[in-house]
Write a structure and sequence with these properties.
mainly alpha, 118 residues, 6 helices, 56% helix, single chain
C-alpha cells in the first residue's frame, strides 16, 4: 500500500483563494456597472419647473421608481400642478446622495419658504 502524501504550502493555497475572490469581485462589479441605468438629462421641453431634477433623472418613470408614483403622478409634480410631499423630497435627495437639509430642498425643489431642518 503505497500512500502518497503531497504537502502544499499554505501560502500557495492563500494565493489561489485570493485570486478566485478577486475574479469574483471583478465579475460582480462588471455586472453591476452593466445593469446601472445611465442617467442622462430629462428633456425640459417647455416646462421650467425643477431644472435640477430634470438634469438628475432621465425620465418621469425613473423618478417615479424613486418615489413610488406613476408616470402621470410624476408628470403632474414636474409640471408644478401638484407639489412634492416632504417624504417624496426626502426620498429623492436620498437617491441623489444629497444631505436632507432645508437649503438643499430649496435648491432642488424651488421652495420659497423656510422649512424645518431635518
Amino acid at each position: 500500500m503505497n500512500d502518497i502524501t503531497i504537502t502544499i504550502p499554505a501560502s500557495v493555497i492563500r494565493e489561489l483563494i485570493n485570486q478566485e475572490l478577486d475574479a469574483r469581485a471583478a465579475a460582480e462589479e462588471a455586472e453591476l456597472n452593466s445593469t446601472k441605468e445611465l442617467r442622462k438629462p430629462m428633456r425640459s421641453m417647455k416646462y421650467t419647473c425643477y431644472p435640477k431634477l430634470r438634469n438628475a433623472y432621465s425620465s418621469y418613470e425613473a423618478l417615479g421608481k424613486v418615489i413610488n408614483k406613476s408616470k402621470a403622478a410624476v408628470e403632474a409634480r414636474m409640471r408644478g400642478r401638484i407639489p412634492f410631499t416632504d417624504r417624496e423630497k426626502e426620498m429623492i435627495l436620498k437617491d441623489l446622495n444629497i444631505e436632507n437639509t432645508a437649503k438643499n430642498k430649496r435648491k432642488y425643489f424651488d421652495i420659497g419658504r423656510k422649512e424645518k431642518v431635518a
